[in-house]
Design goal:
alpha/beta; Chemotaxis Receptor Methyltransferase Cher, domain 1; Rossmann fold; 7-stranded mixed β-sheet; 3-stranded antiparallel β-sheet; about 40% helix; globular; disordered C terminus
């Protein structure tokens, strides 16, 4: 691929999705965009990129979504869910006792496994949250991923990745070779498309934000801007949960790490937190 096309694609992706296309990712370009080329009837990727310079909506959206990484699984990094269950939820149960309202956002939700994992945790504690209003919002840049997440239908391979057998039997219904999430869990989650580069002005405050393994694909400026926006929509005593290999320290002064809970952050104005 011509270097001029790679440069154009890198600038396009950064502007449209925040993705920082580094040289080690160039191998992905041909494999992912060849499928888009065929779908839109172009003879090759170079022809696709020539048309992309005019930025037609359908093609621009398809290219942005094709280059996005959508790796996910049920209860991915189980320690994160254990911490959410043992420490975050009990604390919020007390802090929100008056309003009985809890809002959780799964950003970059991909095909929905993270959101449904949280739904299973909340469903397991439904006695404690009786008569509460719980909003579990899951968003992703890709409309294709959101459509799949809304279906709640998973292959045997996807089910086997991180989902304990006891949770499978109680929360899924088998449909041939696939498994569908139980309706009571499906209706707990509100899915919609959302680009993290967009303004957050229309978002109401959240008590917990899961934004895992997303910021590592952004350059420093985009990561810093995103963290600042996340801080603005996180409740003063809320929790931001990133991937275990991610950190806010070099990009934002708005957060402080929660001790002994890797990947979990509180806002700096909140009291010091210690995981138990």
């Amino acid at each position: 691929m011509q270097s001029s096309n790679l440069s154009f694609l890198a600038e396009f992706l950064k502007r449209r999705s925040g993705l920082h296309l580094t040289p080690d990712k160039y191998r992905l370009v041909d494999s992912r965009l060849t499928r888009v080329s065929r779908r839109f009837g172009f003879r090759n990727v170079e022809a696709l990129l020539a048309e992309l310079r005019h930025e037609p909506d359908g093609l621009s959206k398809a290219v942005s979504e094709a280059m996005t990484t959508n790796e996910t699984s049920f209860f991915r990094d189980s320690a994160t869910f254990d911490h959410f269950h043992r420490f975050v939820l009990p604390r919020l149960l007390i802090a929100r006792a008056r309003t009985r309202r809890l809002r959780i956002w799964c950003a970059a939700a991909a095909t929905g496994q993270e959101a449904y994992s949280l739904a299973m945790v909340l469903d397991g504690e439904r006695r404690l949250f009786e008569n509460w209003h719980i909003e579990l919002v899951a968003t992703d840049l890709s409309s294709e991923m959101i459509a799949r997440a809304e279906q709640g239908l998973y292959s045997q391979y996807e089910i086997q990745r991180g989902l304990p057998v006891e949770l499978l039997l109680g929360n899924f219904v088998q449909e041939g070779e696939y498994w569908r999430i139980a309706e009571r869990l499906r209706w707990m989650v509100s899915f919609r498309t959302f680009n993290l580069l967009e303004p957050f002005d229309a978002l109401e405050p959240f008590d917990v934000i899961f934004c895992r393994n997303v910021l590592l694909y952004f350059d420093h400026a985009t990561k810093a801007a995103t963290l600042d926006k996340l801080a603005r929509v996180l409740a003063p005593d809320g929790h931001l949960i990133l991937g275990r290999s991610e950190s806010t320290s070099a990009s934002s002064k708005a957060f402080v790490p929660v001790q002994a809970a890797r990947g979990c952050y509180a806002k700096v104005r909140a009291p010091a937190l210690v995981a138990v």
